[in-house]
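tool_call: predict_structure(chain=1)
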Amino acid sequence: MDKIPILRMGQFLLVTIQIDLYDRLALNLETDLVSMVHKTGARGVLIDISAVSIVDSFMGRILGNIASMTRILDAETVVVGMQPAVAITLIELGLSLTGVHTALDVERGMALLETKLGPMDLMADEDDNSE
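tool_result:
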């Protein structure tokens, strides 16, 4: 798999990572996601990592970078579905994921984005048919 799919849902982007990321794939995701935020004007990014069982300092740094880059582009990032072992590893590595909001699952993550940004505007897809 060379790319992680990025789905647009109104003013939000949804990324579901179904495999453990290797470095090149993570870098591609970072580039693709930041480009997609710029291209679509998305206001929120939700990254589901529930299928990710291994994380290292590089992966933690990539998540932080994505949040920082999207924030500069006026979008909030929420990471959902983090496994307890991943959370423990991130803390043991000393990674605080500054600027990354977290939620237990996709439903709570979407609610968090809507709290921060307002209700999801599904009509945004119809306004921009260039996608």
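agent: The chain has five helices and five strands. Proceeding to next step.
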